[in-house]
Every structure is written in C-alpha cells, then in structure tokens.
Amino acid sequence: MIKQLLSKLPRKSSKSSANRDHGGNHAANSNASIGSRGSNGKFANSNSSSVAVNNSAPDASQNLGNKIHQGVNSKLNGDLGFSQYEGLPGFKDVPSSEKQNLLIRKLNLCCVVFDFTEPMKNLKEKEIKRQTLQDLVDYVTSVSGKFSETAMQEVMKMVSTNLFRTFTPQPRENKVVDGVDLEEDEPSMDSAWPHLQIVYELFLRFVSSSETDAKSAKRYIDQSFILKLLDLFDSEDPREREYLKTILHRIYGKFMVHRPFIRKAINSIFYQFIFETEKYNGIAELLEILGSIINGFALPLKEEHKMFLVRAMIPLHKPRCLAMYHQPLSYCIAQFVEKDCKLADTVIRGLLKYWPIANSSKEVMFLNELEEVLEATQPPEFQRCMVPLFQQLARCLNSSHFQ
C-alpha cells in the first residue's frame, strides 16, 4: 500500500539523477571547480577536494568531497572515516603530458588538514598525505620548465591551507630576572610538524626555484600573503621559525617589489612588541633577516633606513627580555655604524637612553655592544658623546657586579 502511494508522488527532476547516470565523470567535473580564482586575485573557496575516489560510487564520492571541503581550513576530527582517501601514482609513472594534471591533483589531495592532537587517528591517510607531499618536493626540485599560472595558484592554495592557522598560546609566563629568561623548559613543538615540515620544504624550494617566475608569482605571493606569513613568526616551535626565516629572506631577495612593504611590516611588529606586548617569539629570527638586509643597503643610506634605526632598532634595547635576541640586534646596530660612521653618536646616545638602572646582567650586554660600536666610531662622533658616555662608565665602575 505504501509503495503504491509513493509511486504516485511526482519525482523531482534534479542534477543528482543526471550525476547518477554519468557517475564516471563526477570526479573530473568536481576537480574543475577546485581552486577557482576571483577577479580580485584572492583564492576562492574550493567546492571539493581531488582525493582519489572510487568512481563506481559517485554518491559516496560526493559526500566525501563535501566532508573534506568542510575540513580543509580546519583540523579534521578523525571520525569521518576516510576509507576512500587514496594515494595517487608517482610522477615517474605517468607520461610527461599528464604530469601537470597529476601535480594539480596531488596539490589538492594535500589540502586536507588532519588532526595531529590525536596521534592514532587517520594513520593511513596521514601517511598517504606525507608521501604525496614528499613526491611534490621531489617534483618541484627537479622540474624543468616554468610553472604555469594554474600550478602556482594551486601551490599557494595548498601552502596557505596547511600553514596559516591560529596559534593557541600555552599558559606560560616569561619570568625575567636581570635580563635572563628563566623559562628554560623545552619549547612547545607543533604536533603537526611531520606534515608542516614537508610543506615548508616544498614552499622553500618553490620560491627558490629558477622555474618560478617572479613577475607571475607576485600575484599569489602578495602583501596579504606576506602579512599572514609574518604572523607565523610568533610560533613557539623554533623549527618552524627557522624555516620562516629562510623563506622570508628568499622572498625578499626574489620579489623586489615587496621589499619596502616587508621592511614596514617588520617595523610594525617591532613597535607592537616594544610598546605594547613585549611578547613575540620570532624577534630574533626577524633581526637575523634584517642583519642581512642592512648589510645590502646602498650608500648613502636613505632617510627611511636611518629612521628605522632610531625608531625601532634602538628602542628594542628597552624590553626586559633583551637577552633572547640581543646578539642579532647588536649585529644589526654594528652594521648601521659600519655603513655610516656618523650614526655612531646617535647609537651611543640611544644606548645611554635605554641603559638599565638596576639590572647588571643587562648592563654587561650593553657594554659588550658599546665596545663593538666604539671600534667603528670616528673621533668627531666620539667627541660629541664622550661626556655622557664616561659619566655612565663611571657609574658602571661603582657596580658590585664582578664583570
């Protein structure tokens, strides 16, 4: 009786029935919508993911694609059951004409972000992704021929999906006494590093590759991307910050159009650190990049660079956690004085301005830096600042600190 009633109900004419009739083409059609780029140059959200699925089950494929899409920009909870998340063939196993298409499929496969806070979840899928990422690293390293626009777009989409995330800071307080950070416990290591490391390696080789055309790639490695990359320098994982330091330096060298923006963005981070938070994990790494940048400044120094010294570099002596980044900071200051000896008076007076009053360990750091600056100081600049300098040295001589 019920069957007879149901058979009389009007049937809906929908695309789903068409898809059932053409199940073999479903995956190909869904892949075509992935990574579409808006006219404003920003990445559009992908409608599905090009994981290798069983084409004989189109409905399951569609459901899996929808689930993956929901988890692309967030960690998967591990309960979705990725029974159809399968690896793709190696690049050496397909003809040259198919390698570009395989590259796109592998990049989309790696847009799935797994939850590493649960080590035992999705072990098979995590290993498939790890092997796929490694294949991509090998391909980018050995590729001959310029990357296409589509390839560059998909590389940047995959990198952004995996790397850009919100940090959850650990409940830690930096206890600083006499300029020394007493927080000596092990730094927080990201549980997702087995995948993150390969993504960083892939991105580093992509940026460094001679097959990556800077003129075309700058549309994807734009100012918005650079700001998000700089945000990652606050990572508590030192391994991540080391990769970021190398990558940002390569971007600075390759994309000349972005150089002023990168300097201003770093300047802004320093301002916030000095005058607001005094908490930022990547200050030392940013200063190491700047040391190389300052070394390449042309003479005579631009007024912009001198203002950067006065407004950002010298005030970096103020925070209590100076010991965490003093060595690269001292190198940057010395580079400025070596570039232009007339800046010695400015630097010495800046050091005197921020000279610690009741922190003998920090005073020792100032004295060591002062020694380097004085070695590059010429008599005219020395005479202008020698009276306040020796007054401070006299106070240091009265200190009970053994150094």
UniProtKB/TrEMBL annotation:
Region Disordered, residue ranges: 1-70
Q: Where is the composition biased (Polar residues)?
A: 27-43, 58-70
Q: Which InterPro entries match?
A: ARM-like, ARM-type_fold, PP2A_B56
Where is the sequence biased in composition, kind Low complexity?
44-57
Q: In terms of domain of life, where is this protein from?
A: Eukaryota
One Pfam entry for this protein is: B56
Question: What protein am I looking at?
Answer: Serine/threonine protein phosphatase 2A regulatory subunit
Species annotation: Salix suchowensis
Lineage at the top is: Eukaryota, Viridiplantae, Streptophyta, Embryophyta, Tracheophyta
